[in-house]
Amino acid sequence: MFRHFIFFWGITLVLCALFTPAPAVAGENENDTRLALRIDRVLQQAVSSQRIVGAVVIVLENGKTVFHQAAGYADREAGIPMRKDHIFRFASLSKPIVTVALLRLVEAGKLSLNDPVTRYIPDFKPKLRDGSMPCITLHQLLTHTAGLSSDFAKQSVRITSEPGSSKITAEEEELNRIRAAGLAYIPGKGWGYSLAIDVLGVVLKQATGMSLEDAVRQWGTLPAGMRDTGFYPIDPARLTTPYGDGTPPVRMGEPHIVRFGENNGIVFSPGRILNRSMSSLAGSGMSGTASDMAHLLEVIRTGGGNLLPPAVAQSLMTNHTGTFYVLAGPGWGFGYGGAVLRDPERAKTPQSAGTWSWGGVWGHSWFVDPEQKLVVVALTNTALEGVSGRFPLEIRDAVYGRSTPLPQKPMMQDSCQSE
Questions:
Q1: pLDDT surpasses 90 at 361
Q2: 80: part of which helix (H) or strand (E)?
Q3: Which of 85, 241, 242, 373 could form an S-S bond across to 62 if both were Cys, CB 3.0 to 4.6 Å?
Q4: Are 229 and 288 within 8 A, CB to CB?
Q5: Residue 54 DSSP one-character state
Q6: Among 169, 160, 171, 166, residue whose Cα is nearest residue 202
Q7: Catalytic residue check, 92
Q8: Could you tell me the pLDDT band of residue 316, with boundaries at 50, 70 and 90?
């Protein structure tokens, strides 16, 4: 019996370690305490019900950290608890980072958003169905209004060729495939989530004469103070183990397929980010911490600091796509690096008009609510629950103090491209 007592006492200690509520801090007001308890409850339930394996969530309100908590496991099989400084594969969280680097280059006079892509990639001339080759601008790539085929994005649920299987790089292969797919509509006349930011990665290289990694570091992560973010994990020992949806979630192999929507599935390559010989893709290839991401978003929310002029910072959170239907759903438009909320009632969200938001296919979501002075970052190691399941909706609703109705269509879905 004594051994049984020790066993259950040990289990209790483990559960307490994984689900310790966020502690109150000196001077914390009652609303902050309630918010922390609501989010902590969501985290506990998501992990204990085996919808996600682990997560780190940060909430900033008017620059103050009102919640910062890790829950579950970074590596379930090894018994490694999730920590606040664990590193995640970012997927499309890479997009706003690369966008900031590009906008800083614009401010430095090294390029213009009105420039044609062909100024930097002369042979990038995808065609419309009638055979014409319209001009595509950098602005159109940033806003996903360049005409690049969204059907192609749906088909890109694959692993990029491993080194040695082809004489061309993953980047060149991507450009060739985009050109071959052609344009789905006249640039500027529609919206389609695509691999446009990967094309902008090539533009960054040409404009700076650097590798993509060096260009984004010099013009993006370094001036932004993102010490743990890059195209290769800064500290591979802190990289989380990825899992795919299941009950319980399934540890990803190489490769791993997660079923998704009308597609056969999204193909993930967990090991790709650790392979320095593979070329990086600007739209999905970075990794980093929740703290780094929250810091960048807060700098943008507060006017850009020393990173960007206020007007440029605001341009990221401004709808540039009018009333075009975007992937985030009804009531949303698109800015730079993420969707912008036009109509909260149509979107059925408690977020304020002007909220800027996106996610990452490895299991992440984030949003900035300028009116409420909020920054929320929720990173998980579980795809796709962490990006298009109930979890991001529950985190959102916990922040605003409301319950998440069942069933509910996911607020957003990430690109079918995986890195």
A1: yes
A2: strand 80-81
A3: 373
A4: yes
A5: E
A6: 171
A7: yes
A8: very high
Q: Which helix (H) or strand (E) holds 7?
A: helix 2-18
**What's the token pair of residue 94?**
């890479």
Tracing tokens 């680097």 back to the chain, one arrives at: 101
Q: What does the pLDDT look like over 393-416, one tens digit per residue?
A: 999 999 999 877 765 444 444 333
Look-up of token digits 């319980």: 248
* In the block, residue with structure tokens 């940033």: 142
Integer CA distances (angstroms), 41 to 37, 44, 91, 313, 403, in order = 6, 5, 27, 34, 12
Per-residue pLDDT at 45: 97
Long-range pairs for 11-18: beta carbons < 8 A, 24 or more residues apart: 17/81, 18/47, 18/71, 18/72, 18/73, 18/81
The 10s digit of each residue's pLDDT in 21-66 is 444 333 457 888 899 999 999 999 999 999 999 999 999 999 999 9
Longest dimension (CA), the chain: 80
Q: Cα 205–209–210 angle (5° rounding)?
A: 65
DSSP 8-state assignment for residue 21? P
Rounded Cα distance, 3 and 346, in Å: 58
**Is residue 376's pLDDT more than 50?**
yes
Token pair listed for 111? 């390029």
Which one is catalytic: 92, 94, 269, 287? 92
Cβ-proximal residues to 141 (8 Å cutoff; 6+ apart), any chain: 117, 196, 197, 199, 200, 203
Q: What is the DSSP string of 192-249?
A: ---SHHHHHHHHHHHHHTS-HHHHHIIIIIHHHT-TT-BSS-SSGGGBPPPEESSSSP
C-alpha dist (Å) from residue 126 to 117, 141, 174, 177, 219:
11, 13, 13, 10, 29
Q: Is 396 helix (H, G, I), strand (E, B) or coil?
A: helix
Closest among 132, 95, 135, 144 to 115, alpha carbons compared: 135
